[in-house]
Amino acid sequence: MTYFLSLLDKSPIEQGKSASEALQASVRLAIRAEELGYHRFWVAEHHNMSNLASSAPETLIAYLLARTSKIRIGSGGVMLQHYSAYKVAETFNLLASLAPGRVDLGVGKAPGGFPLSTRALQAAFDPERKPDFAAQLSDINTYLAADPTYEGAQATPFPPHAPERFLLGASVESAVLAAEKGWELVFAGHLNGDPENLRKTFEAYERASSGKRPILALAAFAADSEEQARERVGNLRIVKVFLPNGQTVNVGSEEQAAEFARQAGVTEYRIEEKVPSVLHGTAAQIRKELDELHRRYGVKEFILDTPALAASERLSSIELLAKERLSLAA
């Protein structure tokens, strides 16, 4: 079976440790991932979260690029609704100029935080003039094209190799949009693992992009034994919050659910607690599942989300998976 294996890290802050320690753990993970042969290492964007340290992926990406030499480094992803498309293109062109051929720009539609941080991030926007997500993708395309004849603002500096572009989504609509705008699709299976939705989204992207296949993002944790992996993953929880206006959001605890509702200005809400969908077991068991997904859907690359466990466990997991040679393409 031939496919690439890549990683997504959220810089989780362990109980009793600091954000600085969490970020240094992510750095060590990226360095080790390069040594093990992983294809990409992406970092997430979460705002005003007491348990996650990565709020500005572009800053962390710059540091990781300086600490590595071969592995591709990128965002998984920039929460585009908060930012100017021009500034995003400018930032990633600069990163790609610092490390040519190694920079990925992944973007998503979600806010990446609670209502107060969203309002703070968008305080300077005129809601009447704010472009929609599709228009922002088109604008980024224009800026990254580095066309010297373009008469608008130029997102300098122009790198020798433009950042690769990825749209993070989990719907047929995202698939069609990604194909229409010429972006690679990353199906967020770690957030929406419904098999039927996955099948429909893959088929829609393949049709709309003339045969291309999405990258598949999944949460995965490998341990020395199936029992150990099951025990650790069994302690993880997701709390889904349902607000009266129809909005839903996933948070990490009932306390976070109550805080989200407070910031949204509502007192009535409903929650559902569930165990997140995480591939877990021995590295051989996880490889078997990935091989099957590769066979069934033609997946050429998996991005594995490292669960919010201890740094030592995340490191051990990627080492066990690499030992199974999951990270190497034929």
TrEMBL record:
Domain Luciferase-like, chain residue ranges per copy: 16-296
SUPFAM superfamilies documented for this protein: Bacterial luciferase-like (SSF51679)
Signal peptide boundaries: none
Sequence similarity: To bacterial alkanal monooxygenase alpha and beta chains.
NCBIfam families: oxido_grp_1
Protein name: Luciferase family oxidoreductase group 1
